[in-house]
Amino acid sequence: MNRSTCGWPTKHQILIDYHDTEWGVPVHDDRLLFEFLVLDWFQAGLSWLTMLNKRENFRKAFDNFNIKTVASYHKKKTAQLLQNSGIIRNRQKIEATIRNAGKILEIIEKHGSLDAYIWQFTEGKMKINQWHTLKEIPATSPESDAMSRDLKSLGFGFSGSTMCYAFMQSVGMVNDHLVQCFRYKECMKTG
């Protein structure tokens, strides 16, 4: 079946599957939002293909992204994670993820859910863009700038605007599928 896509998921089936089924689909489940945050924190400086290839390892290593469990990790668990060759063994990113999980528990206490907090940056709905080429897609937006500023003010690490925008794309807060992509209208139906 020949259909138009965004052009970036080529050659690697895992990227194609991710584009065709997950990327840009609105996520409102706190555990899954946390999973995408963790993957984006670790992805900094690496390819998304690397992260997708290690995703199952991350799920196992980080207790299926249970926020309370990750927030409770201590030095022994950090040491175990640093020995786990199935994930990205970066001490700063591991320690930031554990701290960030604790901050997310505070967010949930205040806002009722991570979902309510995260989606406030797009007023609770998908922002629909109309890009025709990959070059048009920005690395940041006013919304990702605002999210980044707020996360940093709460003490989050690895939460720059570029990371926030990539996260927003992943969880469907923005629809950055190219207008000619078969997923463009499909994702709008779910948003």
What does this structure look like?
With 191 residues, the chain is mainly α. The protein has one domain (13-190): Endonuclease III, domain 1. The protein is built from 10 helices and 2 strands. The chain has a two-stranded parallel ribbon with strand order 1-2. Helix 2 (30-43) runs antiparallel to helix 6 (91-111), helix 2 packs across helix 9 (161-170) and helix 8 packs across helix 9. The longest helix is centred in the middle third of the chain and has 21 residues, at 91-111. The mean pLDDT is 96.
Keywords, separated by commas or semicolons:
191 residues, mainly alpha, Endonuclease III, domain 1, two-stranded parallel ribbon, 10 helices, 2 strands, 2% strand
Short description:
This protein has 191 residues and is mostly helical. Helix content is 57%, strand content 2%. The two termini are 26 Å apart.
End-to-end separation in angstroms reads 26 Å
Question: Could you give the order of strands across the largest sheet?
Answer: 1-2
Shape: globular
Number of helices, where a helix is a run of at least 4 consecutive DSSP H or I residues: 10
How are helices and strands ordered from N to C? HHHHHHHEHHEH
Instruction: Indicate the percent of residues in helices.
Output: 55-70%
- Strand percentage, roughly? under 5%
**Number of domain modules:** 1
CATH superfamily: Hypothetical protein, domain 2
The Cα radius of gyration reads 16 Å
The CATH architecture classification is Orthogonal Bundle
- CATH fold name: Endonuclease III, domain 1
CATH class: Mainly Alpha
Low-pLDDT windows of residues: none
What is the total tally of β strands?
2
Average of pLDDT: 96
* Structural class by helix and strand composition: mainly alpha
The major beta sheet can be summarized as: 2 strands, parallel
